[in-house]
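Hi V.,

You were right to ask for the full record rather than a summary. Here it is.
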Amino acid sequence: MSLDKVVAGAAEAVADIPSGASLAVGGFGLTGIPWFLIDALLEQGTDDLTVASNNCGVDGAGLGLLLEHGRISRVIASYVGENKEFARRYLAGELTVELTPQGTLAERLRAGGAGVGAFYTPTGVGTLVSEGGLPWRFHHDGSVALASPPKEVRTFQGKEMVLEEAIVTDYALVRAAVADRAGNCVFHAAARNFNPAAAMAGRLTIVEAEKVVEVGELHADEIHLPGVFVQRVVELTPEQAAHKDIEKLTTRGPRPVAGAHTEGDR
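Predicted structure:
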C-alpha cells in the first residue's frame, strides 16, 4: 500500500464496493457522517447492503437516502428515530434490523478492528438482548419472521455478563476533520463518537476528509485514528467540507428583559 492514500474522488473510492457488501459507517445522528461517500455509493447503484452504524440517517439525508432507494437490506444500529421510512420498511417486513445497545455497538466495532472476536458485558443481561426474542424482521402481516437468538451469559466477579460478538465489515465509510496522505485522521467533537470505531471495523476503510495535509504535519498526540486502519482518502472541496446538516432546527425568540412591557401589557 502506497504511503499516499489520496484518491481522485468519492466515485473512484467506492467504485469496487459490490452489491451484498457489509459496511461500517461513521457518524452520530447527522454529525460526522460521510455525506459524499454515501452519495457516490447511491449513484453507483450498489444494493443489498448490510450497514452497521449508530443510526440510519434521516428521511432524505445520509444513510436514509440509501434506505429509501431500497439499497439496504440489513441494519445493525442502536438508534432508529428521526426516520419514518426506516420504521415503515422495518414494520412492513422489508428490512432486517438488529438493535444493539449503543455502548455495545461501539465496542463491537472497536473489537472487530482490534482483533478481539467477542467480549462480555453486563449491558442487556436479563432482557431480550441476552435472552433472545428481539424481532429482527417481520412478515408482511406483522408477525415475527426472524428473532434474535439467546446469547451466552456467564458470571465474572459475581456479576452476570452477556457475550457479544465483534463486528468486522467488508468496507468502512467515515468522515474526518483532517487527514494526512498516509490516512492518519483527526475527528472533531461529536464526530469522534463512532467514526474511529467504524473505521477500525472495516477490512477496507475509506475516509472523506475536510482537509488533507502532508505526512508529518499532524502531531502524533493529536491523531485519533492511525493510518494503518485506512486504505483510501478523499479530499473534499471547501464547499463540500462546509456541508453539514443537523437533524432538527429548533429556535426561539429572545427572552423578555426583566421589567420590560410587552404588547399584551399595554
